[in-house]
Every structure is written in structure tokens, then in C-alpha cells.
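Minutes, structural biology subgroup

Action item carried over from last meeting: produce the C-alpha cell record for TonB-dependent receptor (Chryseobacterium pyrolae). EB confirmed the sequence was re-checked against the source entry. Recorded below for completeness.
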Amino acid sequence: MKLYISKFILGLMVLSVHFISAQNLSKSKFKVKGNCEMCQTRIETAAKKAGAKTAVYSIDLQTLTLETDGNVSTDEILKKVADAGHDNEKFKSSDATYKDLPGCCHYERDSQSPPAEAHRHHAKKDNEFYVKGNCASCKARIEKTAKTAGADSAEWSAEKQTVTLIFDPSKTSSDKVLKAIADAGHDNEKYKTSDAVYKNLPGCCLYDRDIPFGEANPDVHFEEEAKHDDHKEHQPATLTEDHKPSEKSIEGVTITGSKAATALSKKEAGLVFNIDKKELLKAACCNLSESFETNATVDVSFSNAVTGTKQLKMLGLDQKYTSLTKELLPEIRGLASAYGLNFIPGRWIESIQLTKGGSTVTNGYESITGQINTELLKNAKEPETSLNIFADFNGRAEANITSVSPINEKWSQTFLLHGNGTFGDTDMNHDTFLDRPKGTQINAAYLLNYNDLEKSGFGSHFGINFIKDERTAGQIGFDKTLGQDKQGAYGVGIDISRFQVWNKTGYVFKGKPYQSLGWMNQYVYHQQDSFFGLRNYAGKQHTYYSNLIFESIIGNTNHKYKAGASFLYDGYEETYLMDDMKRNEIVPGIFAEYTLTGLKYTLVAGARADFHNLAGTQFTPRVNFKYDFTPQTILRLSAGRGFRTANVFAENQQYFASNRSIQILQNGGNIYGLRPEIAWNYGASLQQEFKLFGRKSSIVADFFRTDFQDQVLVDLDRSPQQLTFYNLEGKSFANSFQTQWDFTPFKNFDVRLAYKYYDVQADYIDGRREVPFMAKHRGFVNLAYATNKNDKGGFWSFDTTLNWVGKQRLPETSSNPAEFQLPVYSDSYAVLNAQISRNFNKKIRAYLGGENLTSYYQKNAIVDFRNPFGNYFDGGMVYAPIMKANFYVGLDVTF
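Output recorded by EB:
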């Protein structure tokens, strides 16, 4: 009996020792590089030999989970793992050891050594999980969702990008909680949110989805008001012990955000630039046409000498070949083509997405060279009202009032009001013609938003917009109230009324965050009444657009698809001189798009069929492919087809203020007797990121070619007294090459350099020629510097942009008398813009700027300006600025 008792006591002692030892074990996770099962065996063996009680390596997660007691350090274990050939977050293997690994074990190595970046990682506990987020709003959403899913407590760390969970396993599980967090919009180590839910997060919460788990997030910002601060990238966001705003901070836990005002999206298969409203504040951004002055991708033509219109050009082709949308709905097209850029005030814009090359088929068939989408202000956690006042030194003034406010947890609203007026007579080249029109514009919009995606799955956006724009141009002294036949001065009058209403409604299926249904609808009424000297042009357009999109997956989120149907109705009524022209375009369409996502690649392939009542059935395929050689080296390829119907009168109004007679050489088509325009676009780009001066730097080089299968040519060369339209017979192409380098030489100082080359030619009736008004060579320099913020949030900003434009071919004028002839090519020139702004605090900002500070201007902007009713008068031959240096001031106040 005593023997049994002794054995029992001895057994209890042994078990107690094991129990106590187990209690002293600690578990931690570390990033370790490896490729295959051979790597797994090698890593686990090295770790156990170094003293780990247990070692489990995950090839998928690239993590090593260790259990150790107090007699051995994890640093020593990781050093032995590195000695075995595997880089980890604290130690790097020698080159010789790495090269001796079998070929299948040669993982991708980082350019920087782990010790230099060891502070970016941490040992992760069992109840700690990677969850992505940016700000205090993300923190609140993640923690609230976790608790709703059954967690007793949840603490999200912005620095670590992890959530620490405490829960009762009998009531919930980490899987259930993490799935709920993903459904709320936050990618985590086990579940990924759907694109629809992610895109519906507030702008400040849109984290970078490409950053690997465990890496620091450079976009973290914890000042709640930072989303209203246009230069928050220059202000460090300090995290306190409870991760809330405070003057007290943990040593070494200060994170500096570096989100660029314009950034090339690394996650998109296409070449997509995201332009933040911070970028728009770098220049006098009065409307959309001025939103690209600091952007090298888009070329902005200079104002027409008589009508004051500006046009965008991309990939060497006119604006009409780029799809211009607002809230992903068709916007600047049809009769709005000439003046539509003036109808979106710069202060209304929250962000712009610019896509070069073929865009997604879900947005329609008209995109040939790319897409520019504008998002209006509509996101705010707290009510915010802003006032902007602007005036230049030549008689132009404008005011903007924007108010964004939440109504309750689900509803929010936005009021937008804009008014501008040009009152001064500006004639800097002394040709008796106004350098820009006088007139006024009133523009008002109301947006109503409903967001209940997290609970019911529904979200909706409603908008209404009204515009009244009146402008008068021509000779100084022209009186618009008198008929042109009752006065000798030449005049131009343009009156535009525009009304639009739209709705976008979406539903995310319960339990299926990857599956959604969206429906967009819009109605637009546009009316223009105008005259150009003795010529009149008037037009009305009714447009109804509807687009239904269903999105889901095939098996898993690596295989996504979209499918849907669209409908477009355009009703046109136009009058030019004595000719009345009417047509209705009715276009039902269907489309489908498939996205394949691999470890290093993304493929997006789509096609649509549109059944146009006048242009016939059109098939539009498009494909975009992205391959990440490394996270810093990205290759993109694209190809696609697009088609459109040309509005030859509305799109060429810059030539109406001339003596040119319009001639259309019809060929049996159904739109002005012409066939639709059809083109193929092909592109390739290479994006390379690297460190320079210890800071992020990137170079992007891209080449695109556009080949027209059919095109409506605008021929200005047949005669200086004619404007001729006809369909292409032969070839027409545009080659575009651009390289852009962005870098930061020192803190708060950003540099952007770019060079562009265009080769744009077409087979006109008289032979192949370069397309006029397109410079082959262009150079671009943008410099931006901001001082550090003071304790009130105040700072200075300095921005300057230099555009160099090479020589351009000018239309043929050799049959004119010698004094009215233009040279074959224009001179090259440079234009310098600059702005200084002062943020006194987070609510008051003043700015002073200058445009065309080189004061270069085109001296012969109007041909035969002394005789505007004669045979040689032409106000459409503009290739350079027509105004000298112009200065402006402005004030922004937020309430």
C-alpha cells in the first residue's frame, strides 16, 4: 500500500513539473521566408535544435509559430533559422547560404535587411489577429463589429495592424468574429472583404489592400479631423497607449503617414491614378478643366480665343475619346462636350480616378483612350460647412459653399452651391477681342446618401444638379441686348441650361460579402442657345441612362465576375443656320467581366454587346493584365475596343467663330450621314518603386497605341475657309509614350518630373499628315513643399508647375493672303504656374497664385481680327496661351 502511495505522489510531482513547465511556455509568431515543404522541414528543424519546444511553419502565411521557455531567446532561434538559409524579420541569411539552398527553395528576398526593418514587426499572441485599417473610424468599426459578433473585448492596434480578442469559446469563435470584421469592410488574415463593401468605406478608411499582413501601414492617421486637413501627409499622427488622440505618446510609436496627393493604384490591373482633393488645392482649381494642371497624364488645351473653351487631351487624342463620368455615370458628352468641363466646380470634388487605356466594360462602350471619373463631396462623420472665395486680378470672381453633414447613423446629405462671374474686359494682346468671355454661372446640387451595408446590406445615393451658364464674347463693346445686325461689333453669346437627377442603389447579400447587386439610373436635360457673329447654333439633349450590375465569385474570391445590362437613350435636336437636325439613339446592351487573382498577377477580361439602333450591333472586348515581379516592380498590359457616335457640331464649336463653312461628306451612315467611330487601344506600362534619399521614389513608363478602324476626321487643311467632316479611308493612329518620376529629396518636398512623346497621324483626303495642334514633345516639372505644422495645425505650402510644349503642326493657310498665313509649325514655349498658401489652422486657409508667369502668349490668336465678317477671319487657330501672366487670391474657411 505504501508503495502505491509513493508511486502516486511521485506521479503527481512529475505531472506538476510538466504542468509548471507548460505554464512557463510562451508562444509567439514571426515572419520567415520560405517556399515549399523542404523549407518547412528545414525551418522547423533549425528552430527545435536552437531550443524551441515546438515550431510550426506556415508556407501560406510565411509565419513561424514558436513555443519557448525562459531558458532560450527567440532571437537566438531566429538567428539559427537565418543561418539555415531563411531570411526572417530579425536576421538575414548570408548570400552564400541562400545560394546553396535547392532551387525550389529560392524565395523572393527583400532589398533591405531585416534588422533595419525589425521594428516594423512584432511577435503575435494566440488571441491576436491581423486586421487592416487606417484611422480612428476604422478602430471604432472593427471593435464594435467584434463585440457584436460575440467578443467580450476587442482592442485594435493601428501600429501593429492587429486586433486582440477576448471571448468565450462556447459562445463564439475567432473565425466568426473575423468574418464579421471582413463583412464590415476590413481585410484580415482569414477573410477578405468584398470590393463593393471596401469601396463604400469613408475615404479616410480606404487602407492599402496590397500591404502584406505584418507590414506597417504608412497611411495610418489618428487625428479625427485629419480627413479635412489637406496636408495631413506632412503631419505625424501620434498614437497613445489607448490609441486615441492625445498629447502624450509612446516613445518610438510615432507613425508618419505618406499618402500621396496623386497615387498610382498598385492593386488595379489597369493604369489608374487616384487624385485626392489635396492635389486640387495646389493650383487655381476653379473647375474640372483646371484640375489637371499639376498632373502630367492629361494635357489641357488653352482657351479658345473667342469662346473661352478648354479641352482635355489624353494619349495624344482629343477629349471626346476619353470617357468623362461623374459618380461613375456618363457626364461630359454629347452637347456638353464643348463646355462641360466648366460645370464641375473644383471645390465640389472629393477625388478623381484617372484610367489610362481601356477601362472596364461595366462603365460602357465609349472609352477609347481612358476614363476620368469624378467623385463629389459626400463623406463626413461630423457636420462640416466650407466657404471658398476666389478672385483674379482681371475681373473674375467665384464663391463656393459646400456642406456635408450626417443626418443619423445611416443617412447623410450634401449641399453644394457655386457661383462665378467674369466682369472685366481682358484684352492683353490688343486685338479688340476679349481674351476670355464675360458672364455668370449658377450651379447647385443636393446629394442624399443612405448606408446600411453592415446590417441590412442596402446602400443608396441620390443626386440632383441644376446649372445656368451665360457668357458673352467677341469684340470689346459688343452689346448682347442688341441684334448682331444692329451693330458693327462681332459678338458671341452662349446660354446653357442643364438639369440632371441620378440614383445609385446597391445591395450586399447577407452572409455573402463578395456578392452584390447595383443599379444606377440618370436623367439629363441639356439646352444650349448660342450665336457666333451671324451664325446661330442651338441644341437640346434628353438622356436617360440605366446600368444594372451583379457581382459574385466562382468558388472563391480569386475568381470574381460581374455581369449586367445597360440602357442608353439620347434624344438630340440641333439647329445650325437654317438646318434642323434630329435623331434618337437607343442602345440596350449586355456585358460580363471576369477577374482572376493570383499570388502575383491579376487578369481582368470583359466584353459587352450593344445593340445601337443607328450604328448597329457593336462588340466591345477589353482585357487588363497586371504582373507583380516584386511588390516594387509591376508590369501592366491592356487591350480593348471602343466605339462612339460623333457629335460633329457640338464637339467643334471652337471653330464656329470663323468664316469657315461646314461641309459634311456623307457616306450613307445614320449619324449626320457618317459612320460611328471605332478604335482599338493597346498599352503596356512598367512601374518601379525604390528608395532614394531614404524615401520612397517611383518611376512609371508607359506606351499606348490607338488604331482607328473608323473615324470621323475633322479636316482644317482643305481650305482655310472650310471645316470638313468625313469618315476615315485608310489609317489613323496615335502613339503615346510617357515616363514619370516621383521622388522626395527631403522631408515635405515632393518632385514630379515627366516627359511625353506623341506621334499622331491620319490619312486625310489629301494624304497622310500629322494631326494639328498636337506637340510631339512635352516636358513637365512639379515641385511641392510644405512646412511642418505648428500646434494649431498651421503651415505654409509652396507649389509650382512648369509645362514645356514643343512645336505643333498648324492647319494649312497657304491660300490666304500672306498677312493672314500661319507658319507650318508653331514655336515651342514654356508656361509656369505657382501658388503660395497659408493654413492658419485647420479651418482657415488663404492662398495667392499666378498663372503663365512666363507671360508667353500667342500674338496671332485670331486671324484677320480687324475684319471679323470677312473671308479670312478665324478664331479657332489657338495653340498657346492668349493671356499674359494672371494673378489670383483666395480664401477657404471651414465652419
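Discussion: Confidence is low (pLDDT under 50) at residues 1-23, 112-122, 223-258.
Next step: EB to file the record with the rest of the batch.
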